Amino acid sequence: MKNVTELNHPLIEHKLSILRDKHTGTKEFRELVGEIGAYLVYEAMRDVPLEKTTVETPIKTIEMGRLNEDNFVFAPIMRAGMGLLDGVINVIPNAKIAHVGMYRDEETFEPVNYFFKAPEDIANREVIILDPMLATGGSACDAIDLFKKKGVKKMRFICLIAAPEGLEKVTSLHPDVPITCAHIDDTLNENKYIVPGLGDAGDRIFGTK
Ligand code: PRP
Ligand code: URA
């Protein structure tokens, strides 16, 4: 699928096999979400532009690229997106953080936005939206819309598991937003949960069920 990158690596499959397992406890689940989140950011930033800088090594002075970390904003979609934050902030420690509060209505499966707080100058920054699950794509699309309304021009979306239905929706409504995921699953069930998926990511991260 155009503009969608799936991590394809035996170690990611190994980690996903533990994450998906219903017997995996909260502590290990949380740690794995953060860890895979870091790998996702590395992949998502593959084409990121660097600024030229001069570095004096003990041996020689060279020109090389450096990231302007201040330019980036991580935007977890709450609650479950918060689980990715620890891992990704280790990769770009000076990034800013925007919080997007959203939950899926249990009957309509439509996202409801209950909170939004972003840096004041968000329009001049690049936003990396975080959410472990991309199911119908409703939450992702609404979050992207919120940032576009604030004037953000460059966004990336990262998730652990994506359903083909959601990817289709996000890539057709927002072809300018590249998506990086750890795995594309088979489909959605009648309750719009990803199959095989890993269950309810928020509940498993926060131990609420
Ligand atoms: C989950 C998940 C996404 C959304 C995906 O959140 O973290 O935000 O569902 O579904 P969609 O693609 O069909 O919109 P949920 O609404 O369960 O809230 P939570 O993170 O607070 O548990
Ligand atoms: N939200 C989740 O947490 N899991 C799914 O499978 C779908 C939406």
CATH C-level class is Alpha Beta
Radius of gyration over alpha carbons? 17 Å
Which percent band covers the strand fraction? Answer: 25-35%
Biggest sheet statistics: 9 strands, mixed
- The global form is globular
Give the tally of structural domains: 1
Structural class, from helix and strand content? alpha/beta
Return the average pLDDT rounded to an integer: 97
User: Could you give the count of β-strands?
Assistant: 13
Question: How does CATH name the architecture?
Answer: 3-Layer(aba) Sandwich
How would you explain this protein's 3D organization?
The structure is a single chain. By secondary structure, the protein is of the alpha/beta class. The chain has a single domain, classed as Rossmann fold, CATH 3.40.50. It has helices at 10-20, 26-44, 82-91, 138-149, 164-173, 201-206, and strands spanning 4-6, 51-56, 61-66, 72-78, 96-97, 99-104, 111-117, 126-130, 133-134, 154-162, 179-184, 187-188, 194-195. The strands form 3 sheets. Strands 1, 4, 5, 6, 7, 8, 9, 10 and 11 form a 9-stranded mixed beta sheet that branches. Strands 2-3 form a two-stranded antiparallel sheet. Strands 12-13 form a two-stranded antiparallel ribbon. Strand 12 and strand 13 form a beta hairpin. The model has no long low-confidence stretch (mean pLDDT 97). The structure holds 1-O-pyrophosphono-5-O-phosphono-alpha-D-ribofuranose (PRP) and uracil. The site of uracil (URA) has 9 residues, from helix 6.
